[in-house]
C-alpha cells in the first residue's frame, strides 16, 4: 500500500512539475528586460533589504464549518516566516488572523534591476483556502472540484501551488492526505478548497525612502461555485522595510506588453487552445558575420481560450498569475485583474496593421467568429540607460520583435510573425496596438499539422499592445517619486495613449465648435422652412420635434460656456438680464444667417442659393478660361462686375481664394484670412489645408534667407499641428507620410500610417459646389489604377486630387510620387506634366515625350491626351507654333464624341485664339466648332470667339447669331455690343446698329477694344443712309437726336 501511494504521489508531483514549466519567471527562462537591453557590468553585490509583511485585519470572511487558511505566494520564492525554526511555509491559519502573526519577510536586492523586474511583473498572490479534513462519506459535503491549472483536466486533490508543498530542502513532499487509508471506501480524503484570491502590486515598494504602509487587498471568489462561498474578503496588510529598496538607482519608465487575441485561426488550433503559447523576442534585422541574427527572449504568454470574440471577458490580467489559474474554466478574472480593459467596440480600430497585407478584418463577425483569447500582460521596468538603448534600436531600425506561436514548448513553433516597433521613435508616441500576421513556421511537419479550415479566411494575425509609461525618445521623469505619493502610485498600474489624453488648448476652440453647431442647426431649420413653405410649427411637427430639443441643448451649452462667463450672475434678476442679452445676440446672428451661408459648408446657402451659386460658378469658370487663352482685359471686366454685383460675398471670397491659390497668387490668396468676419471661413477645413501650402510657398519665396532655409521645417511643424486638430481627416496624414518616406523617416511613416489607415472607413470631406479647378480643366478624367495597386494606393489617389483641385500642386506632386507606379508611363507623364504646367515649372530643359498608342478607342483617346498636354507644355514656354501643331491633332476628334471634346476644351480654345491672332480665321472657326456646345448662358467664350472668327470671315449673319448669344450672360460686356453694332451697320440695319451702339457706350468708363474702332474706320460712310430705317419697317424714320451718341 505504501509503495502504491508513493507511486501515486510521484505521478502527481511529476505532473505538477511539468505544468509549472511554462510559468518560468522573467528572471529565468523568459529573460528580463535588463537581460535583453543591458549587459550588466561587474559591480559589488548590493545588500539585501527585507520587506516585512504582517496581516492586520480580515473582514467579510465566508462562513465555514472547517478552518480557513491564507496562503502567500510570490514567484521570487523568497518569502520566509519569521520564527525560530527555518521554514518555507507561507500559511496563516485562521486562529492567527486576529493576533497579527506571523510576520513574513520578503528579500529584495537593493538597487537591483533584475529584482525590480521580477517584482514589477509578479504581484504577491494571496489565496484563502478552506481545509477540509478526512471525513466519513456520509458526513462530507461534496463540492465539485475544478481544475486550477491551465491544461489540467483532472481535479487535483490539493488546490495549492506546488511551491507551497515544498520541504525546507526544496524537495516536493507527498501531501499528508495520501497517507493512511485513502482508498478506504468509508472516508473522503482531506484536501484544500480555494475560496477566493487576490493580489498586491509590489512595484510600490521601490522608492528612495523606507517603505511603510497599510495595504488593502480584496480576495475575490470564483464566479462559478456554491453561492455560500461567493464572498469577497477584505484583508489589510501592514508592510514595511527597515532600509529603502532604492538607494542610488532610479527607474524612469515602464513597459507594458499585452497579448490580446489571435484571429483567423484554423480549427485544429482551437482544439488545442489551452496548450498553446506565444513568445516575444528581440531579433536583429541584420545578420552578423556568420549569417545569424541575434534573438533575445523578452516574454512568453501561455494558455488561450477559444471564445466568440464578443463574448470574451475584456479584463486584461497578469500573465504570471493567470498561469496558476485557468480563467477560461473558472472565470476568475477579477482575482488577477489589472484594471485595464479591451474595448470590444474598437477591437479592430486603431491597430497598426502590417503594411500592404489584407487581413480580412471586415469579414470577421465578432458575434459569431471564434478567436484565441489571451488578454494578459507583462510589465517591465526601464532605467535611463535602457531607454537610450531602446531609443537607438527604434530610431535606427536595428531590431524587430519576433512573435512565435508554439505548442506546449517554445521549441515546438507552429507559426511566427514580426512586428516593427519603429513607431515609438516618433515624438510623444508611447502606445500602439499592432496587428502582425502569423505565418507557418518553415517546417514540413508544421505545415502538415496545421491546415487552413476555409479558403476565404484571411491570414492569421495576433493583436499585441505595447505601451510605455513615457515616450522613449525624450528624457524621462524619475518614476520612483510616484511611489512616494499615494495618489500617483496608482498611475503606475496602467498605461494610456498620451495622444488621446491631450486636452484642448483653450476654451475658445470649444466655444467655436458650439457656435458652428448653432449656425448649422439654424441654417438647416431655415432651409426646411423655405423649401417646404412652412407657415406654422404644426405643419413641420415631424421635423421640429427633434430639432427643438437639439436647439435647447445647444442653448444651454452656449449659455454656460459663453454668456454666463461674460456676464456672471448671482441673482434671478441678473440671470434674467443675461438671458435677455443672450436672446438679442443670438437673434441678430440668426438674421445674418438668413442672408448668407453657414460657415461650415458652401452648400448651405438658404436664400436663392442655387441660382446665385450656379451663376457665380459659371462666370468664375469663364473668367478662368479667358485668362488661360489671353483675354485678360475681358476677364477683368467680368470679374469686376461679378465682384460688385454678387449677393453672396462668402461664396465669392471663397471662389476667389481658390482661384488665387490655383494661379500661384499666394499673397493675394493669403488676404482671405485677414478678415474672419467678412470671410467667415477662417479655420475651416479646405481653406486651412490651402493655407498650409500658401505659408510654405511664401516662406520659399521670402527674401529672408533664414526664413527660406526654415521653410520645410516650418511646413512639417504646421502639418503636425493641423493633423492634431483634424484627427478624422486623412489628407494631411497622407501628405506627412509621403514627406517622411522621402527622407526615410520610418517612425513618422509608421505613425501617420497608423492614423490614416484607421480613417479609411470615415467619410471624407468633399469640395463640392465650386468652379471646375484648373487641374480638372487640363485632366478632367480620373485614370484607372492598375489591379496591382494596394489599398493604400487606392486611398491616396483621392488625396492627390484634393490637393490638385485646391491648387496645392507641390503637395499633389509629393503624393503622386507615391502612387505613380499604379499608372501607365503615359498616364504618369500626363499627370506630372500637368502639375508642372500649373506650377509654371516648364523651362527649356523640359523634354516633350510621345508614347505609342493603339488604334482602339482608348488608344485614340490617349493619343489626343498627349497632343493636348504637349501642346500646353509648348504654349506655357511660349512656343506657340509648336503648340498649334499639337493642338491641330485635336481637330480629328469625331463630332459625335462630345464628351471627348469637353476634355480638350482648353487646347481647342487656345488654338482658336492663336489662329485668330495670326489671321487664320478659318482655323479659328474650326477650333471653336470643336468646342462643346452647351446652353447659351454657359458658352460665352466659345460663342464670342466663334462670332469674331465668323465676323472676320465676312459671314456676318452667322456672326450676329453667335454674338447675340453672348448677351444672354448676365454680365455686361461692351465689346460684344460693339461688334453687333458694326455687323448690323455693315448689313445696313442702321437702327439695330444704333441700339447696339447705345448699349456698347452705356458705361463710358468701360473702354471698347481697339479692334472695334479699326473696323469702324473701314466703313465707307457715304454708303450709309443715316435718315432711313433699314431694318425692314419703312414707317420708322430715324431722327437727328438718335445720332447724338455717335
UniProtKB/TrEMBL annotation:
Example of a GO biological process term: cilium movement
Q: Which SMART domains match?
A: TPR
Q: Does the keyword Nucleotide-binding apply?
A: no
Q: What residue spans carry the region label Disordered?
A: 1-41, 137-170
What segments bear the compositional bias annotation Basic and acidic residues? 139-148
User: Which keywords does this chain's UniProt record carry?
Assistant: Repeat, TPR repeat
Residue ranges annotated as compositionally biased, kind Polar residues, are 12-31
| Cellular component terms (Gene Ontology) | extracellular exosome; motile cilium
The protein's superkingdom reads Eukaryota
Q: What is this protein called?
A: Uncharacterized protein isoform X1
Which organism is the protein's source?
Drosophila pseudoobscura pseudoobscura
Q: Which gene encodes it?
A: LOC4816992
Amino acid at each position: 500500500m505504501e509503495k502504491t501511494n508513493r507511486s501515486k504521489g510521484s505521478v502527481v508531483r511529476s505532473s505538477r512539475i511539468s505544468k509549472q514549466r511554462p510559468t518560468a519567471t522573467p528572471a529565468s527562462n523568459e529573460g528580463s528586460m535588463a537581460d535583453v537591453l543591458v549587459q550588466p557590468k561587474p559591480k559589488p553585490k548590493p545588500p539585501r533589504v527585507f520587506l516585512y509583511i504582517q496581516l492586520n485585519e480580515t473582514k467579510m470572511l465566508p462562513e465555514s464549518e472547517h478552518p480557513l487558511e491564507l496562503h502567500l505566494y510570490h514567484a521570487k520564492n523568497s518569502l520566509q516566516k519569521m520564527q525560530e525554526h527555518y521554514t518555507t511555509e507561507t500559511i496563516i491559519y485562521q486562529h492567527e488572523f486576529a493576533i497579527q502573526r506571523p510576520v513574513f519577510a520578503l528579500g529584495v536586492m537593493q538597487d537591483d534591476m533584475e529584482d525590480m523586474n521580477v517584482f514589477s511583473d509578479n504581484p504577491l498572490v494571496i489565496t484563502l483556502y478552506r481545509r477540509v479534513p478526512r471525513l466519513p462519506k456520509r458526513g462530507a459535503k461534496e463540492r465539485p472540484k475544478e481544475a486550477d491549472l491551465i491544461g489540467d483536466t483532472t481535479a487535483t486533490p490539493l488546490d495549492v501551488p506546488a511551491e507551497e508543498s515544498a520541504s525546507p530542502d526544496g524537495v516536493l513532499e507527498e501531501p499528508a492526505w495520501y497517507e493512511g487509508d485513502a482508498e478506504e471506501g468509508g472516508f473522503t480524503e482531506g484536501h484544500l478548497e480555494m475560496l477566493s484570491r487576490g493580489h498586491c502590486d509590489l512595484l510600490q515598494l521601490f522608492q528612495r525612502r523606507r517603505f511603510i504602509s497599510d495595504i488593502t487587498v480584496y480576495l475575490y471568489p470564483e464566479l462559478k461555485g456554491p453561492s455560500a462561498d461567493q464572498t469577497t474578503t477584505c484583508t489589510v496588510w501592514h508592510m514595511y522595510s527597515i532600509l529603502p529598496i532604492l538607494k542610488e538607482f532610479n527607474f524612469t519608465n515602464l513597459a507594458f506588453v499585452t497579448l490580446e487575441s489571435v484571429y483567423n485561426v484554423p480549427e485544429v488550433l482551437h482544439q488545442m487552445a489551452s496548450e498553446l503559447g506565444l513568445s516575444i523576442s528581440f531579433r536583429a534585422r541584420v545578420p552578423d558575420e556568420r549569417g545569424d541574427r541575434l534573438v533575445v527572449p523578452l516574454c512568453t504568454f501561455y494558455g488561450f481560450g477559444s471564445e466568440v470574440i464578443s463574448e470574451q471577458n475584456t479584463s486584461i490580467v497578469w500573465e504570471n498569475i493567470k498561469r496558476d489559474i485557468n480563467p477560461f474554466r473558472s472565470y476568475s478574472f477579477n482575482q488577477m485583474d489589472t484594471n485595464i480593459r479591451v474595448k470590444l467596440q474598437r477591437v479592430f480600430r486603431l491597430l497598426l496593421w502590417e503594411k500592404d497585407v489584407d487581413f480580412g478584418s471586415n469579414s470577421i463577425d465578432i458575434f459569431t467568429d471564434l478567436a484565441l483569447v489571451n488578454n494578459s500582460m507583462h510589465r517591465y521596468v526601464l532605467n535611463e540607460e535602457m531607454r537610450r538603448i531602446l531609443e537607438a534600436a527604434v530610431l535606427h531600425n536595428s531590431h524587430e520583435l519576433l512573435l512565435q506561436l508554439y505548442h506546449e514548448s517554445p521549441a515546438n513553433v507552429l507559426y511566427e510573425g514580426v512586428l516593427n516597433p519603429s513607431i515609438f521613435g516618433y515624438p510623444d508616441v508611447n502606445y500602439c496596438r499592432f496587428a502582425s500576421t502569423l505565418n507557418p513556421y518553415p517546417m514540413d511537419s508544421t505545415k502538415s499539422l496545421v491546415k487552413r479550415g476555409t479558403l476565404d479566411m484571411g491570414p492569421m494575425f495576433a493583436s499585441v499592445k505595447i505601451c510605455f509609461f513615457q515616450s522613449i525618445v525624450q528624457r524621462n521623469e524619475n518614476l520612483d517619486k510616484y511611489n512616494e505619493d499615494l495618489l500617483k502610485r496608482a498611475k503606475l498600474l496602467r498605461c494610456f495613449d498620451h495622444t488621446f489624453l491631450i486636452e484642448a488648448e483653450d476654451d475658445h476652440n470649444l466655444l467655436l465648435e458650439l457656435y458652428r453647431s448653432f449656425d448649422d442647426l439654424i441654417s438647416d431649420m431655415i432651409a426646411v422652412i423655405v423649401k417646404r413653405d412652412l407657415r406654422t410649427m404644426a405643419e413641420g411637427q415631424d421635423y421640429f420635434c427633434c430639432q427643438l430639443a437639439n436647439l435647447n441643448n445647444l442653448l444651454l451649452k452656449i449659455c454656460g460656456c459663453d454668456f454666463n462667463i461674460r456676464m456672471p450672475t448671482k441673482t434671478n434678476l441678473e440671470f434674467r438680464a443675461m438671458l435677455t442679452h443672450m436672446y438679442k445676440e443670438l437673434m441678430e446672428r440668426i438674421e445674418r444667417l438668413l442672408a448668407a451661408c453657414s460657415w461650415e459648408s458652401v452648400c448651405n446657402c438658404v436664400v436663392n442659393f442655387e441660382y446665385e451659386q450656379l451663376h457665380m460658378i459659371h462666370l468664375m469658370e469663364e473668367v478662368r478660361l479667358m485668362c488661360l487663352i489671353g483675354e485678360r482685359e475681358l476677364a477683368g471686366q467680368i470679374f469686376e462686375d461679378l465682384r460688385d454685383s454678387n449677393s453672396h460675398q462668402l461664396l465669392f471670397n471663397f471662389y476667389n481664394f481658390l482661384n488665387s491659390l490655383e494661379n500661384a497668387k499666394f499673397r493675394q490668396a493669403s488676404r482671405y484670412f485677414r478678415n474672419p468676419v467678412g470671410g467667415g471661413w477662417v479655420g475651416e477645413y479646405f481653406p486651412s489645408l490651402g493655407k498650409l501650402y500658401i505659408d510654405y510657398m511664401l516662406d520659399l519665396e521670402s527674401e529672408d534667407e533664414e526664413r527660406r532655409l526654415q521653410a520645410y521645417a516650418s511646413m512639417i511643424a504646421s502639418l503636425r499641428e493641423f493633423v492634431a486638430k483634424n484627427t478624422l481627416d486623412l489628407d494631411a496624414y497622407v501628405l506627412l507620410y509621403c514627406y517622411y518616406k522621402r527622407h526615410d523617416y520610418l517612425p513618422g511613416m509608421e505613425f501617420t500610417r497608423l492614423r490614416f489607415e484607421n480613417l479609411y472607413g470615415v467619410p471624407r470631406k468633399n469640395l463640392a459646389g465650386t468652379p471646375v479647378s484648373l487641374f480638372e480643366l487640363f485632366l478632367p478624367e480620373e485614370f484607372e489604377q492598375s489591379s496591382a495597386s494596394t489599398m493604400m494606393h487606392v486611398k491616396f489617389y483621392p488625396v492627390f486630387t484634393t490637393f490638385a483641385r485646391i491648387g496645392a500642386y507641390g503637395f499633389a506632386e509629393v503624393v503622386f510620387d507615391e502612387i505613380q507606379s499604379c499608372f501607365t508611363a503615359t498616364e504618369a507623364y500626363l499627370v506630372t506634366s500637368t502639375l508642372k504646367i500649373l506650377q509654371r515649372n516648364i523651362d527649356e530643359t523640359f523634354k516633350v515625350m510621345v508614347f505609342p498608342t493603339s488604334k482602339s478607342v482608348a488608344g485614340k483617346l490617349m493619343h489626343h491626351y498627349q497632343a493636348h498636354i504637349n501642346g500646353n507644355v509648348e504654349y506655357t514656354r511660349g512656343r506657340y507654333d509648336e503648340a498649334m501643331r499639337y493642338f491641330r491633332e485635336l481637330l480629328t476628334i469625331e463630332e459625335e464624341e462630345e464628351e471627348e471634346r469637353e476634355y480638350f476644351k482648353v487646347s481647342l480654345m487656345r488654338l482658336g485664339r492663336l489662329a485668330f491672332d495670326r489671321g487664320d480665321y478659318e482655323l479659328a472657326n474650326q477650333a471653336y466648332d470643336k468646342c462643346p456646345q452647351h446652353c447659351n448662358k454657359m458658352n460665352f467664350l466659345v460663342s464670342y470667339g466663334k462670332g469674331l472668327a465668323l465676323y472676320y470671315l465676312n459671314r456676318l449673319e452667322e456672326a450676329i447669331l453667335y454674338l447675340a448669344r453672348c448677351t444672354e450672360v448676365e454680365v455686361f460686356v461692351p465689346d460684344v455690343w460693339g461688334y453687333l453694332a458694326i455687323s448690323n451697320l455693315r448689313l445696313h440695319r442702321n437702327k439695330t446698329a444704333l441700339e447696339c451702339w447705345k448699349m456698347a457706350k452705356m458705361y463710358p468708363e468701360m473702354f471698347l477694344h481697339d479692334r472695334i474702332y479699326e473696323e469702324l474706320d473701314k466703313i465707307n460712310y457715304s454708303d450709309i443712309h443715316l435718315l432711313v430705317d433699314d431694318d425692314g419697317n419703312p414707317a420708322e424714320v430715324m431722327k437727328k437726336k438718335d445720332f447724338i451718341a455717335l
